[in-house]
């Protein structure tokens, strides 16, 4: 079996425990002064890659990658403290777009094209990434990357097994589980049931500061990152109406008739 050369993309997002707020201009979610952390699904990807090594699989290298502002290096260091070997940071600083939104916000297709270049230059044969990021919830990057590379894909993985060149992925579907089998190279996207991510220990955090972290730019990869979508307006959802109580089944049926549901 050839060694596993794993790429794990990670993204800096608003912390999952923070309630997002729409900015005053209603062009995006407010990010200034808001706590950020690693996308939870990406934590699972790092955990899976590290556990593959702990299961004595021939993992040659675990490379973490992020494209984002300077502060994104913090989550790359966290990923290396969890067990990744080295990192690449493509610095993309946000800037106000006259049409609304952030110039520095990469769309899924742009990210997929960037990852395609990284896979080819770094000679990766496995990419493990979160099935979605919790900021835009696009759930597109993994699938687009598989299409660009013409690799098999296994999305929303809840279990991953590697035997030689063969990879078996189990995922939950409506009413049961689905098992997918493919050969390396492969794209895997992770679901929340895959693992419980480990905490980075203080000694590992200190060691991570000495691990290689290379900074690059979009121009280094020659990728077109122009936005193809424009956000017209962002607003809070309408408040939910309170429910009502009925005394019995007849009352419920009468209420449903009044609402036109029956």
UniProtKB/TrEMBL annotation:
Annotated localization: Mitochondrion matrix
Record note on cofactor: Binds 1 FAD per dimer. Binds 1 AMP per subunit.
One GO cellular component, as annotated: mitochondrial matrix
Record bears the keyword Mitochondrion: yes
Gene3D superfamilies per UniProt: HUPs
UniProtKB keywords: Electron transport, Mitochondrion, Transport
PROSITE patterns xref list: ETF_BETA
Cofactor(s), names only, from the UniProt record: FAD; AMP
CDD domains, per database record: ETF_beta
Domain Electron transfer flavoprotein alpha/beta-subunit N-terminal: 26-225
InterPro entries attached to this UniProt entry: ET-Flavoprotein_bsu_CS, ETF_a/b_N, ETF_b, ETF_beta_N, Rossmann-like_a/b/a_fold
SUPFAM superfamilies named among the record's database cross-references: Adenine nucleotide alpha hydrolases-like
Molecular function GO terms recorded: electron transfer activity
GO BP, sorted A to Z: amino acid catabolic process; fatty acid beta-oxidation using acyl-CoA dehydrogenase
Keyword Mitochondrion attached: yes
Function in brief: The electron transfer flavoprotein serves as a specific electron acceptor for several dehydrogenases, including five acyl-CoA dehydrogenases, glutaryl-CoA and sarcosine dehydrogenase. It transfers the electrons to the main mitochondrial respiratory chain via ETF-ubiquinone oxidoreductase (ETF dehydrogenase).
Complex formation: Heterodimer of an alpha and a beta subunit.
Family: Belongs to the ETF beta-subunit/FixA family.
Record-linked PANTHER family: ELECTRON TRANSFER FLAVOPROTEIN BETA-SUBUNIT (PTHR21294), ELECTRON TRANSFER FLAVOPROTEIN SUBUNIT BETA (PTHR21294:SF8)
Protein name stated in the entry: Probable electron transfer flavoprotein subunit beta
């Amino acid at each position: 079996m050839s060694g596993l050369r794993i790429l794990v993309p990670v993204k800096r997002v608003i912390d999952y425990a923070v309630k997002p707020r729409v900015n005053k201009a209603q062009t995006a979610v407010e990010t200034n002064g808001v706590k950020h952390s690693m996308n939870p699904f990406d934590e699972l990807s790092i955990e899976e890659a590290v556990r593959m090594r702990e299961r004595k699989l021939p993992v040659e290298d675990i490379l973490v990658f992020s494209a984002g502002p300077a502060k994104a290096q913090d989550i790359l260091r966290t990923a290396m403290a969890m067990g990744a070997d080295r990192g690449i940071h493509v610095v993309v600083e946000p800037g106000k777009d006259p049409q609304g939104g952030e110039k520095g916000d990469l769309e899924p297709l742009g990210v997929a094209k960037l990852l395609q270049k990284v896979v080819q230059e770094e000679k990766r044969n496995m990419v493990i990434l979160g099935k979605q990021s919790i900021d835009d919830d696009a759930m597109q990057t993994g699938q687009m990357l598989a299409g660009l590379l013409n690799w098999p894909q296994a999305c929303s993985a809840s279990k991953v097994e590697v035997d030689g060149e063969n990879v078996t992925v189990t995922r939950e579907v409506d009413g049961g589980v689905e098992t997918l089998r493919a050969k390396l190279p492969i794209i895997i996207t992770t679901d929340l049931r895959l693992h419980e991510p480990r905490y980075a220990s203080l000694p590992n955090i200190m060691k991570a500061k000495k691990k290689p972290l290379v900074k690059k730019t979009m121009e280094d990869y020659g990728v077109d990152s122009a936005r193809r979508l424009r956000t017209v307006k962002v607003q809070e959802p309408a408040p939910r109406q309170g429910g009502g109580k009925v005394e019995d089944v007849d009352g419920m049926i009468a209420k449903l008739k009044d609402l036109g549901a029956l």
